Request: fold
Amino acid sequence: MNKIQAVLFDLDGTLIDSEYFYFKNWAPILKQEFNLQINYEDWIRDFAGHTLAHNVKRLTEDYGYDVTEEHMWKRTRAAYADSNMSDIELMPGAREILAFLKAEDIRIGLVTSSYRSTVDTVLGKHELLDYFEFFVTRECVELPKPNPEPYRLALTNLGLPADRCVAIEDTSTGSTSALGAGTQLIAVTKQEVERARLTAVDNIVENLSEAKALLAQWI
Reply:
C-alpha cells in the first residue's frame, strides 16, 4: 500500500452525529404532509445518507406521494432553522482524528452532500473549520454521491493520485462515490443495515478511534 497523503471526510454521520437531528425534523413533516409515520430504524434504512433529491424521489416513486423537491427543501430548511443545527454534536473521536492527522502533516478535505451553510454552522460551532484544506459541498457538484463526481473534484483540488488518498464514510452511498473515484476507503458505522450494504468495502470499523488506529498503520 502506498503511503497516504490525504484523508477526505464525509460529514453527516461520520464527523457529526446528525442523523437523529434529521430524523426528528423529517418525521413530523412526513406525518403532517402524507400521514406517513416512520421510526428511527425506518429513517436509517430508507432515507439516511441520501440527498434531498433522492429522498423526494423515494417519496414520489416508492410511496406514491405528489411532492416536489422545492417544497421539501422549504419545509425541511425551515424545520432545521427552528431546531438550531448548531446543537448537533461531534461523533466520538472526531476532534482527535483530525488533530492526529494534522500533527502527521496529512492533508484533510471534506466531501459532503450537505450545503456549505451546514458545514459552517456545525463545524464552525465546534471550531473545526481550520482543519480542512477545502470543502466539497452540494453546491460544488452537479451529480452528488453516490456519483464519483464529489470525490473526483476533491482529488483535483488535492492534485494527488487517488491511491494516496483515503475517504472516510459511513454509508454505502458515500462509499460508492469514493470507490468510484478510486480512493482507498474506511467505512465507519455501527448500523447493521449499513454494514450489510458495504459488501465492496474491505475496511469497516465501528468508530473513529478505530479508523484513527487504522490510518496510523498507513501513514
Remarks:
- Residues 7 and 108 are 5 Å apart (CA to CA).
